[in-house]
Design brief:
This protein is α+β, with helices and mostly antiparallel strands. It is 25% helix and 21% strand. The protein binds adenosine monophosphate and zinc ion (ZN). Zinc ion binds next to helix 1.
Length: 111
Amino acid sequence: MENCIFCKIVAGVIPSPRLYEDDKMIVIRDIEPKAKLHYLCIPKTHFALLSEMDAERAEIVKHCFSVIPTLEKTLGLEEGYRVIINQGENGGQTVHHLHIHLLGGEKLADF
Ligand code: AMP
Ligand code: ZN
């Protein structure tokens, strides 16, 4: 997708070290961490919103949620973490390529 920063990261046009990669997703560090540890799980396929879900995309999201728990130790998230998917304007989504935030490395504030 043209002008999508996460598509550019997935394509390697914008360099970003990958902490994990497979055929469906990558995990990178958030450039502006909102917690001691802040990662982004980014599906390689572009779509913006959960409301754009279809069977194929659901498989990709399912894959992400299957892999994330296997990375807890590697990512230093064994003590727990928060999973966030911001949706649209009110959700504070700034990059319109669906992604999963993983926040941890410290006790997070209640929200
Ligand atoms: P959201 O507000 O849910 O759309 O999240 C977008 C996230 O992407 C923000 O937390 C940004 O800090 C992060 N971000 C934007 N550009 C980059 C980049 N080049 N590398 C890593 N993270 C990025
Ligand atoms: Zn994209």
